[in-house]
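Standup notes
- DV: blocked on the single-chain target, sequence here:
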Amino acid sequence: MGLFRRGPKRDSRDAPRDLAFPFFSVDEAARFRSQVREAFAEHGLEVTLYADQVTDSSGRQFGLGNLAAVCHHDERGPRVWGDLARRHAGMVLRTMDSPSALDTLPPEQIRAQLYPRVISEDGLDPQTFGYARSVAPGLYEVLALDLPESVMMLTDEALEPLGRLQHLRERALSNLQELPIEGHETVKDSDGTRFEVLLGDSFYTASRVLSLDTVVRKVTGRPIPPDGALVAMPFRHQLAFHVIHDTSIIPTLTAMTAFAASGYEDAPGAVSPYVYWWRAGALTQLSARDGEGLRIVVGDDFHELLERLARQESPDDI
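- DV (later): unblocked, structure below
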């Protein structure tokens, strides 16, 4: 998985856009949906196509948002959309038609495959995920069961027989901390910009913000200092951070703001387009939407940090 994705040869952006998936032209969207219908048919299921989902005769619904984003970002272009759709349809149907892992796996194995996952509040039903913990405005931590072909988000009802919530969270966090670093790249520029990016196929790469201190030690060999770090998690397979030491935080914040917004757009498993200030596990949002773009927003605490860092580098100017 590359850091900066190069788009495949596709229809011009001037071509009429699809309403449900604007990253597709109207013609590309028609081709995508046709491939989806054929993929389900090859698995013995006739489906009815809608703009962003398909349904079968029994009323089961299959959302197409993540698959559409995966196809959109695949560098091989439309020629592989059929293969991706067939793989997706097969995985979804096997998961739905198989007995629930909660009924077949012993409790200890379930706990061994339990991970915390940071997700957007979009689509999070507070009635079934009442235990979800807020980690930042619009972001929540839930517990997920990692399975060979899927990730099962666990509801209040699913968690109840597994034990106390606090103990489950602790076990899930321990499992998260033990994950290996799959990929790591450094982004830097002559203006002082520098930040680290973790990339991986794991659905929990972005969620490693919950154990950022462990991640930073693994990547840099040093702990996070008291001033904390900048962090961004654009989508589930990417986590970016910059440990705060000096005024290089200023150009880095600007660069990370653009990086997070770009990575979030149309990504499969999008998490957040914003940059945050991490301090002792707490996240403070530092960027926000401003019309069609983003702007940097800093509160008094962060402003005082910037002033202190500037004074430390220019003591003769005090």
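- Follow-up: The two ends are 47 Å apart (CA to CA).
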